[in-house]
């Protein structure tokens, strides 16, 4: 068993103002993605200015935050927020959902594509390899908060989390950091370094993220208010990943078939 490194979730206190590590992880994710996007900008579109890129980052960030919050409300705890709608705005209390954030990013990217005249999937292929930076940073934030821990386990690297009872558990946040953050970034970055058919990078993102998240959910405790939703073992996270996996495969196949027809 490994000791859980208890880190104060509050990174900095300035009088009544408290800056949490979880919030800083969002800034790190957005800032890191912005920096890498700037490095790839000329290869993506030499006519784009840094100001245009800044606008895109702002739109995507809004999609992540608003979509992530609304996704959690709709997918994971709708009854709580129906009973007390004002809690929807209590973001500092936690409650963000990746799949909601993804829908928010898709919507904001579509709106930005219409605004700039850039094809939607060209933009998504540009954005997709940058997303794992934010995903990885977010999982580190979950780990620091001691939340979203895994099932009870006797593996040598199991940890006792402050809010998880006396039993050692899988550090599932670190599994997600390794797969959804590090591995997904390496796969997408390497794949996108060469020209690919439009939509293929986006499809690979959907496929890989869906598979990685589906696997980790077997080690993670489902949300208490939902539990298992199907067959006694499928979680909400896994159910939401199924269309991502199928859609990702479909986009990759469609992208390469269309490319072959136009070659």
TrEMBL record:
One of its GO terms (biological process) is lipoprotein biosynthetic process. GO terms for molecular function: phosphatidylglycerol-prolipoprotein diacylglyceryl transferase activity. PROSITE patterns: LGT. Its EC number is 2.5.1.145. It is a multi-pass membrane protein. Pathway: Protein modification; lipoprotein biosynthesis (diacylglyceryl transfer). Keywords: Cell membrane, Lipoprotein, Membrane, Transferase, Transmembrane, Transmembrane helix. A 1,2-diacyl-sn-glycero-3-phospho-(1'-sn-glycerol) binds at residue 139. Coiled coil: none annotated. The chain crosses the membrane at residues 19-36, 56-76, 88-113, 120-140, 174-191, 198-216, 228-256. It is found in: Cell membrane. Its main location: membrane. Pfam families: LGT (PF01790). GO terms for cellular component: plasma membrane. Catalyzes the transfer of the diacylglyceryl group from phosphatidylglycerol to the sulfhydryl group of the N-terminal cysteine of a prolipoprotein, the first step in the formation of mature lipoproteins. NCBIfam families: lgt. Belongs to the Lgt family. HAMAP family: Lgt (MF_01147). This is Phosphatidylglycerol--prolipoprotein diacylglyceryl transferase. It comes from Pseudomonas mangrovi.
